[in-house]
Amino acid sequence: MIEIPHFKDLEIENILFDYNGTLATDGYLKEETKVLLKEVCEKYNVYVITADTFGTVKEALQAFELEVLVLSSRDHTKEKADFLSKLNSEKTVALGNGNNDARMLKDAILSIAIMGDEGCAKETLLASDIVCKEIGSAMELLLKPQRLIATLRR
């Protein structure tokens, strides 16, 4: 349990990542991201949900203990939010950057928008609790919860 004064008490079990623009750039993970993702996978149940724009997600993530869901509907915003709901939004942190991530971030117990190389859609930025300049900083927040407390306490 992470108790954040005058914000929320967080009992985090799941981490739900968007892939392109969040975990990956142009379909590929940076080396630093791989190291931190391995640590996050050891601590939480990890899920990656993506349209897989570059067709690389399954190969790029095959070495990690996580579940990948490639979107199949015509409404990716709804599909992402519905998947979050199945995981239990009250115990799931969502991370994303695109317009189709905004509802997923809004519904999660804690949401982190990633600026990254692609930038971040305005709606997703406004739906987030925290904004990080890159995915490494966001994963460090998950691995070092005192940073969450320092940022979110009121």
UniProtKB/TrEMBL annotation:
Domain of life the protein comes from: Bacteria
InterPro entries: HAD-like_sf, HAD_sf
CDD domains: HAD_like
Protein name: Haloacid dehalogenase
Organism of this sequence: Sulfurovum riftiae
